[in-house]
Amino acid sequence: MDTHPYRTTAERSDARRTQRLRFALPANATNWISVWRRNYLVWRKLAIASMFGNLADPMIYLFGLGFGLGIMVGQVDGVSYIAFLAAGTVASSVMMSASFEAMYSGFSRMHVQRTWEAIMHTPLTLGDIVVGEIVWAGSKAVLSGFAIVLVAGALGYAHYPSTLFVLPVIALAGVAFASLAMVVTALAPSYDFFMFYQTLVITPMLLLSGVFFPLAKLPEPVRQAALMLPLTHAVELIRPAMLDRPIADAPLHLAVLGAYAVVPFFVCAALFRRRMMR
Amino acid sequence: MRCHACILPFQAFPPYTYPPYLSLALFARSARLAFNAIEWGADGIDFVRNVSGSMSNTIEFCEVEKRYGERTVVDRLTFHVRTGECFGLLGPNGAGKTTTLKMLLGIAEPDAGTIALCGKAIPAHARLARQRTGVVPQFDNLDPDFTVSENLLVFGRYFGLSTSKARAMVPGLLEFARLEHKADARVSELSGGMKRRLTLARSLINDPDVLIMDEPTTGLDPQARHLIWERLRSLLARGKTLLLTTHFMEEAERLCDRLCIIDEGRKIAEGAPDELIESEIGCEVIEVYGASPAALRDELTPLAARTEISGETLFCYVNDAGPINARLEGRPGLRYLHRPANLEDVFLRLTGREMQD
After folding, report:
1. Of the four listed, B64, B172, B250, B254, which is most buried by Cβ atoms within 10 Å?
2. CA of B126: which chain A residue's CA is closest?
C-alpha cells in the first residue's frame, strides 16, 4: 500500500484537516434517531420523577412571583402580572430543561458512563451522537414548556388558538439552548464546571430577557445587549402568541434562534472531535 | 508439434513489433500508477484499493505513526491480520496498544501510514468497516440504566437492526455469554466477569466478521478469564477473525495464532508464539529469588547458557537443568522455579525489562 508520495507535507495536512472534521459531523440524516431513542427509553423508566423535577421549579416561580408580585405590581404591559409571567416562564423553563439535560446528563453519558465511546464503535459518528443528544435535550425542553403551557391554559393565562404557535417556537428554542449548552459540555472537565455557565450565562439571561419584567424600561445599552441573547427572542415570540397579540419582527427572532441552534453545533463538533477523537 | 508451437508466436509477433508492444506496456503501467496517484476523492482511491488489495488480509496496518506533541506513541507500526486467525498485540502498559486500536477503528487519525479494515480504507470508509466489526473495549461502557437484554437491544439499533431482528438475536447471545438467567437483571447487579461477558455478547449483535478486543480479561479472576478464553476459541472455530491486545503473556500464548510484541510504540518481534520463544530463547528457564541476585549470578553463570537479572529475580537459561537444580536444592531462603520459556522471557530478552510493571 503506497502512502501517496506525490503529496507534499503541506497538502497532506490540509487535506487531513478538512477530512478530520468530516468524521465528527453526522454521517447521514437519520442515524441520530437511534441515539435519541436510547435516551428516550432511559427516560421512560424514570418519567414521573423526571417530569416532576422539570415542572416544580417553574411552577413555584409562576405562582410565588405571579401572585406575590402581582398584588404589588398590578397590570404589566396591559395584562395581569401573572399572565405576563406565565409566558415568560414557558420560555425560561425551556431554557432550563434544555441546558441542564445537555450539560449534566450529556456529561454523564459522555464522560462517566462512556456511552458515547460505545456508540462510536458502531457505524455512527460523533456528529450523529451530538445531534441525537441535542435533539433529545430539545425534546425534554418541549415537554416541560408544553406542560407549563397546559397549566397556564388551565388557569386562563393562555389564549386559544394563538397559543398553538408556541409549540414550534418551543422546539426551536429548545434545540438552540441545547446546542449552546453542548458547547459547555464539550469543554467541561467535571460537573463543577457547569456552575460557570449557570452563574455567568443562564442567570443573567434569565433576568435580562424580559421574562420577569418588560425590557422597554431598561437603559438602552442593556437593552441592546439583551437583544443578542436567545432567550429574549424566544420570549418575544412566545409572549405575544400566548396573549393573543401580533408578533413584531417574527422572521428576525426565528432567524436568531436558528443561528443559535446551528452555529454552536459546529463549534461543539470541533470541540468534541478534539476531546474524543485524538 | 512442439516446434510449430514455438515458431507460431514468433510468426505472430515478429521482433520488429516488440518496441510498440513494449512502449504500450510501459504506457499502461505508468497510466495505472498515475490513476492511483490522481486525487479522485476518497471513493476513487478506495475503489482501486479494494480491487487491488489482498482479500486474505482482514486488517492491514502499514507504517502507521501517531504523535501527541513531541511524544511518538505509535512509531511506524506494521502488521497484517489474516482472515480467520487470532492476532495478538502484546506489550506493557503505555506501549500504544489502545491508540493502535483507536486508529484501526477510525476514531483517532494517524499522522502517517495506511490502514485497511475488512477491505475498507480507514478513516475514509471507517463507518462501513465498523458495520462488520465488533469491539470489546478495555473499560466497560454498558448502559447502567438498562437491563442485560435491553443493553443488547439498544446496541443492535445503532447498527440499523430493526427491533424484531435485534430481539431475535438476544437469546442466542445470552446463551453464548452464559447469562440466560440474568436476562432481566440490571447491569449494576452483575459481577465483573458477567459484565465482560455481556460486553462480548454485545459486540456480536451485528454478527461481525472481525472482533477487536482491548485487554479482554484484565481485572478478571482466573475462572472468569478461562470462561472468556473458551468463548473466544469458539468464536475462532466459527471462522471469525480476532485481534486482541493484552499484557498477559499467558493469554497471548493460549489464544493467538500469531502475535506482535510492541514496546514504546515500536514493533520489536512478530511471529507465532512458540516460534518466537524457540527462536529467541530456545531452552528452559530457572527463576531464582530470595537471595542477592548478583551473588547468585556469579555462582550460577558457569552452569547456564545465559543469565539475566530483573528486579529481585535471577533468570537462568539452561539447556540442561540438572546442575543448577542440584546446586540450589535444599538451600535455605531460596525459592526457584524450573519452567519452559515463555513470552515474558522473550520480552525480557528484547527490552531488558519485564512486561508487568
Report:
1. B64
2. A123
Question: What domain count does chain B have?
Answer: 4
Chain B's closest residue to A22, CA to CA, is B124
Q: Which domain holds residue B101?
A: 41-132+213-228+239-280
Residue A138: domain span: 28-276
Contact (CB<8Å) A41/B146: yes
- Looking at chain A, which residue has its C-alpha nearest residue B42? A19
Strand, coil or helix: what is B332? coil
Bridge pairing between strands B258-263 and B210-214? unpaired
Based on the fold, state whether residues B304 and B169 are members of the same structural domain. Answer: no
Q: Which three cell numbers stand for residue A5?
A: 508520495
Q: Which of A112, A122, A129, A273 to mutate to test binding with chain B, by most B CBs within 10 Å of its CB?
A: A122
Residue A54 has a pLDDT of 77
Side-chain-side CA neighbours of A17 within 13 Å: the count stands at: 5
**Would you call A121 and B137 a contact, using CB atoms and an 8 Å cutoff?**
yes
Residues recorded for chain A: 278
- Which residues of chain B are within 8 Å of residue A121 when distances are taken between CB atoms? 105, 107, 130, 133, 135, 137
Cell numbers describing residue A45: 423508566
Residue B193 pLDDT = 92
Mutual angle of helices A32-45 and A47-73, in 10-degree steps: 80
- CB-CB neighbors (< 8 A) of B78 in chain A: none
Q: Name the residue in chain A with its Cα closest to that of B61.
A: A1
DSSP B147: B
pLDDT tens across A66-123, in order?
A: 888 888 888 888 899 999 999 999 999 999 999 999 999 999 999 999 999 999 999 9
- The verdict on a CB contact (< 8 Å) between B53 and A1 is yes
Residue A4, in any domain of the structure: no
For B219, half-sphere exposure in the C-beta direction (CA atoms, 13 angstrom radius) is: 14
Consecutive 10-residue runs of chain B (357 residues): their mean pLDDT? Answer: 48 64 71 49 40 67 92 94 94 91 94 93 91 94 95 96 95 95 93 94 96 93 93 95 92 93 93 92 87 84 86 87 84 87 88 71
Q: Which residues of B239-272 are buried (b: 16+ CB within 10 A; e: fewer)?
A: ebbbbbbbbbbebbbbbbebbbbbbbbebbbbbe
Cα four-point dihedral sign A54, A56, A60, A66: positive
